[in-house]
Amino acid sequence: MHPSKARHQKLSLFQIFNMSFGFLGIQFGFALQNANVSRIFQTLGAKIDDIPILWIAAPITGFLVQPIIGYLSDRTWHPRWGRRRPFFFMGALFSSIALVGMPFSSALWMAAVLLWVLDASINISMEPFRAFVGDKLPAEQQTTGYAMQTFFIGVGAVIASLLPYFFTNVIGLSNTAAEGIVPDSVKYSFIIGAVVFLASVLWTVLTTDEFPPEDIAKWEQEKLKTKGVFHGIIEIVQGIGKMPKVMLQLAVVQFFTWLALFSMWIYTTSSVAQNAFGTTDTTSKAFGDAGDWVGVMFMVYNGVSAIVAFLLPVLAKYIGKNITHLICLIIGGIGLISLFIIHDKMLLLLPMVGVGLAWASTLTMPYAILANALPPNKMGFYMGVFNFFIVIPQIVAAAILGFVIKHFFADQSIFALVTGGISMIIAGLLCIRVKE
């Protein structure tokens, strides 16, 4: 079958499975980072109000890397390796190296540098995966494609989040260590994560093909005309100024959503340790237990997202993607706020169900709404630009949260989660403005 015809054919569920499987590994790395990096920073001597600025690596690298990778992947073609798959592989390779190195850091600055490497590498792999759905699937299957990605994100994050708890409570590894040393339960979790990351991305790279540009000769000619770094920068800036209207509407929703999520990832460990385990001593068993329990909490919200991933498209068919997203975000915001009043560790799992619903919708609905509004030849670039509205709120959070928690809330980090919940509810209400 000619490529121009094949690209419009529906794919089987197994083919969609293969092209999405790499997200299992990407989220393995992402989940280990989200649940454990603050714990590693505190173990290596970081104070509560220092943690947000140390996390700034994540949004800064996303801000710089994603539009560039999207632009480059749009302009890449290899007869054997395709367009997006070279970026999948290189990102996975460097992410795995960073995952192995991070828990063995002997100083805070080393862990901070490795977070930069890890997040940049995750972005190199992750950004082209979003464009991959637009490349491979016809419009009627794109929501299913993003839902399959969400499913693997949930599965990968469930396993990764649970690993430290598993190594402590099942295998018997210690979740405490001497001052300045990361516990063995975390070290082994990150090693497993590195292996899974690389292996799952390789699965997608080796089992999925890609379509060449429809007119390869014309594509090569246009590529030569626009060759050069300076021209690339100009094209990126011009492209940002020509964003589709629906992208701008979704941008505001994304801003408040990711402000909430970043607050949760930074401060859940310290909040649970203070609010439910009654400690701020990073060398104590109670702090280690709190860190392990945060992994269980994150397992719950990611598990819920995996379960509901395929239910959201069904709901969206009847009430619309924007209203589906509105409902999920409001429920998630209420869940985050309720963590303030819960002090029993088992009851802490209940609000994470709501957070999981919001997380599933965040990973599915905005991209499903956006995909049909983007020009196919710039799918990767615009998906990268869209992620500006993920990283900008993270930069804002990293810049101000530490100051606010220290000077307004007396280092009671639970108020960061309350702020995040309010922000997520605002994001949900703003979905009313989004026109599909």
Brief descriptors of the model:
mainly alpha; Growth Hormone, Chain: A
Brief digest:
It contains 19 helices and no strands. It has 436 residues and is an all-alpha fold.
Determine the fraction of residues in helical runs and give it as a percent range.
over 70%
Number of strands: 0
Q: Given the helix and strand composition, which structural class is it? A: mainly alpha
Strand content: under 5%
List the secondary-structure elements in sequence, H or E: HHHHHHHHHHHHHHHHHHH
Low-confidence stretches: 1-5
The CATH superfamily is known as MFS general substrate transporter like domains
Tally of structural domains:
1
CATH topology: Growth Hormone, Chain: A
Radius of gyration: 21 Å
Describe the protein's architecture and organization.
The chain has 436 residues and is an all-alpha fold. It has one domain (14-433): MFS general substrate transporter like domains (Growth Hormone, Chain: A, Up-down Bundle). The chain contains 19 helices and no strands. The protein is globular and about 60 Å long. It starts with a helix and ends in a 6-residue tail after the last helix.
